[in-house]
């Protein structure tokens, strides 16, 4: 071990890399409990749990490299993206976990949260009103009943690892639970819309592309304030604000 790497650090949680081990320290013990439970149930490659001593969870690094990073071009092959779609389908076809996840919020609760965030973005001058209004219109298609499946809930590309064309691990399961399948597909392709076709090929069934586009807008609108308040920049190239602009 040459150093301790800070992977993520904000007021809710910290993730450190120490050699081939990751230490996750979470202020909310329930999130760690969900993560441990979900990794035990998921029928896809997940990190090995080395030990769990609240509030710390130690997991082994998974082989391979992440499909990419939000705001950066992905160098992963089309076949690797398709393999990610296949893994997600395996997860969505698995028996339901015992509790709702982030992707399973009710339409009523999600609508109220979305409207509140849109109002905040405009009132505080964070984003132009026309940009918010247009994306709020696009987001409406995601606000509908859906059949619940086993969802990851935070399936950003940095959480999916591949070696060559094979998926070797999916990490960060603290938002997992019952939810909307298209939320996972939209999260994976957020900021990498050009890869959606490859993912759908691997997923192996028809998906409603309008709903996925709606989730791109909805997730971005909901994420801007959190990112700003936690020291991140949603207007960095290729990130949430660029996703919102692309919907215009």
Strand content: 15-25%
CATH class descriptor name: Alpha Beta
CATH homologous superfamily classification: Aminoglycoside phosphotransferase (APH), C-terminal lobe
Q: Kindly state the mean pLDDT as a whole number?
A: 93
Strand order, sheet with most strands: 1-2-3-5-4
Cα end-to-end separation: 48 Å
What's the number of domains?
1
Main sheet characteristics: 5 strands, antiparallel
Quaternary status of these chains?
single chain
Order of helices and strands: EEEHEEEHHHEEEEHHHH
How many helices? The count is 8
What structural category arises from helix and sheet content? alpha+beta
Gyration radius, to the nearest Å? 18 Å
Poorly predicted runs: none
Dominant shape: globular
Q: What is the number of strand segments?
A: 10
CATH topology type: Aminoglycoside 3'-phosphotransferase, Chain: A, domain 2
Please name the CATH architecture: Alpha-Beta Complex
């Amino acid at each position: 071990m040459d150093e301790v790497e800070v992977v993520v650090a904000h007021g809710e949680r910290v993730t450190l890399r120490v050699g081939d081990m990751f230490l996750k320290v979470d202020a909310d013990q329930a999130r760690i409990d969900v993560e441990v439970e979900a990794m035990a149930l998921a029928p896809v490659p997940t990190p090995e749990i080395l030990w769990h001593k609240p509030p710390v969870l130690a997991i082994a690094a998974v082989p391979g490299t992440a499909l990419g990073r939000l705001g950066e071009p992905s160098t992963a092959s089309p076949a690797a993206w398709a393999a990610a779609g296949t893994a997600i389908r395996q997860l969505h076809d698995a028996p339901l976990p015992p509790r709702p996840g982030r992707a399973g919020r009710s339409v009523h609760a999600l609508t109220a949260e979305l409207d509140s965030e849109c109002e905040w973005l405009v009132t505080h001058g964070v984003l132009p009103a026309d940009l918010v209004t247009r994306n709020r219109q696009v987001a409406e298609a995601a606000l509908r009943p859906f059949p619940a499946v086993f969802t990851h809930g935070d399936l950003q590309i940095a959480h999916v690892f591949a070696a060559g064309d094979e998926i070797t691990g999916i990490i960060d399961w603290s938002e997992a639970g019952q939810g909307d399948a298209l939320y996972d597909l939209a999260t994976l392709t957020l900021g990498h819309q050009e890869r959606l076709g490859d993912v759908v090929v691997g997923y192996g069934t028809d998906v409603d592309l309008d709903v996925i586009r709606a989730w791109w807008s909805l997730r971005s609108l909901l994420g801007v304030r959190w990112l700003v308040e936690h020291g991140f920049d949603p207007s960095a190239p290729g990130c949430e604000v660029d996703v919102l602009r692309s919907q215009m």
